[in-house]
Every structure is written in structure tokens, then in C-alpha cells.
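Appendix C: a fully annotated inverse folding record. The material below is reproduced so that readers can follow the format used throughout the book. The structure is listed first as C-alpha cells, followed by the designed sequence.
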């Protein structure tokens, strides 16, 4: 443990970072007393933060001015994957940089892929978050339907997880939904941030992702609960939105 960025990076050949959002990465990498100021020329920076393709490319370009290399490397697998060393790591950047840090990445992850140039890892991660968010909608609605029909949700989880409806969300978070256990692995506030990046990426296109827009609204309903602290709960807390919507219906276009 060190007390400053300078101490952490000035003698490092490879620098790993995992932060919160785009402004955090910009500040740590490019701000005063940041990585760009103290890292050795030629060092490789691997950033695990989900920041979207555009931000990754812009930050990479600025770091290149300081003779620093950059890989965007967002991850998936949640706290379970991190603890077990089974994360999925999606990277964007140069092949030689990828090969250099791959032995270290294999300590953290099981599925490790170079997806293309800088920003490509971010692009794949946004696709991943689309799947995760819409899977959560499906999981919550299946649980609410089971409740409505008087069916044990645990039976639904057991039967459906072995067939075509099976998913990581159903197998790993279904029980927590059934038990109203909303302790976070991946917090709602972080998913809302990621979906913001997805929706921002669509602003200059005609593509409409209705499922993502629905998931975003449901997560934001829960985010406002508990005096605005609902976003600290895990994504499985989306189920709480359905009770709120019954009391306060939301009109969807």
C-alpha cells in the first residue's frame, strides 16, 4: 500500500487501474499528480473501468503523448468472478501489449480476449451490459409471475435454469431475488452508469434499444428508494421496482 500515485507507478512496467467513471479515469491518468506525470516512458497502462469506447480512445491518445501505452480492459463476472479469479476480461489495444500483460490477466480471469484496437473492449462490455440488464428484467418478471400464480419461485429457478431460459442471472441471482436479498455484488448505481454509456453511444444513430431503455428506467426507480440510496443495492433489487410501479404507474412511450 502506498500513499500516492507517484509511489505506485514511478517504477512500474505495467500499471493496472479500476475506477468508477470517466471523470475518475481522466483525473487519475491525466490530472495533476496523475499517472501520466510520473509513469516511466514506455509503461503499459491497463484500465479495467467501464468508460465506453470514445473515452477510452481519447484517454489513450492523451497518454500516447507521454509515451505511455494503453489497453482498455473492462471486466465481467462481478464480485464472485473477482474472488475466484474467473472474470471475463475484454481488451482493446495492440496485440503486443496484450501478450505482454496476459500472464498477469490470467491470474484474475478465465476468459481473456483481445477484441480489437483501443475502445473495442469497451464496445464488447457495453454489449455485455445490455445482456445483463435485460436478463435482470426477465428474471424479475418471471419471479413476479410465479408469485402471481402461486408458484414457488425456487421451483421456477430449479426447472428453468436447466433449459433454454437458463442464464447467469437466473443461476447466480435468482435465489437472492426469491429471498429479497439485495446485498450488492454489482451495485445498481454502477449499472445505471453503464447503461448511460450505452444510451450515449446511440445518440448519433437511429438505433433504438427498447429493452435497455426499460431496464434503465426500472433501475432508476429503485435507485431513488430509501431516500435515494437504493442504488447501493445489488442489481437483483430491480424486483423492488415492480411494487413501486404498481403504486405509481410509469407511462412508457
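Designed amino acids, in order:
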Amino acid at each position: 500500500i502506498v500513499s500516492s500515485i507517484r509511489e505506485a507507478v514511478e517504477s512500474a512496467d505495467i500499471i493496472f487501474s479500476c475506477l468508477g467513471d470517466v471523470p475518475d479515469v481522466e483525473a487519475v491518468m491525466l490530472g495533476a499528480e496523475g499517472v501520466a506525470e510520473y509513469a516511466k516512458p514506455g509503461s503499459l497502462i491497463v484500465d479495467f473501468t467501464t468508460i465506453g469506447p470514445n473515452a477510452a480512445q481519447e484517454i489513450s491518445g492523451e497518454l500516447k503523448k507521454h509515451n505511455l501505452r494503453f489497453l482498455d480492459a473492462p471486466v465481467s463476472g462481478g464480485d464472485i468472478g473477482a474472488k475466484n479469479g474467473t472474470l471475463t476480461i475484454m481488451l482493446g489495444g495492440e496485440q503486443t501489449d496484450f501478450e505482454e500483460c496476459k500472464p498477469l490477466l490470467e491470474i484474475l480471469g478465465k476468459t481473456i480476449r483481445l477484441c480489437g484496437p483501443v475502445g473495442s473492449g469497451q464496445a464488447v462490455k457495453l454489449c455485455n451490459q445490455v445482456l445483463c440488464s435485460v436478463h435482470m428484467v426477465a428474471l424479475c418478471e418471471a419471479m413476479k409471475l410465479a408469485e402471481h400464480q402461486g408458484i414457488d419461485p425456487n421451483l421456477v429457478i430449479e426447472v428453468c435454469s436447466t433449459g433454454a431460459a437458463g442464464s447467469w442471472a437466473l443461476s447466480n441471482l435468482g435465489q437472492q431475488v426469491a429471498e429479497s436479498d439485495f446485498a450488492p455484488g454489482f451495485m445498481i448505481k454502477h449499472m445505471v452508469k453503464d447503461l448511460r454509456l450505452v444510451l450515449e453511444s446511440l445518440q448519433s444513430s437511429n438505433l433504438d434499444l427498447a429493452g435497455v431503455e426499460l431496464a434503465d428506467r426500472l433501475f432508476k426507480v429503485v435507485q431513488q428508494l430509501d431516500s435515494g440510496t437504493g442504488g447501493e443495492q445489488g442489481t437483483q433489487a430491480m424486483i423492488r421496482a415492480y411494487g413501486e410501479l404498481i403504486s405509481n404507474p410509469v407511462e412508457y412511450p
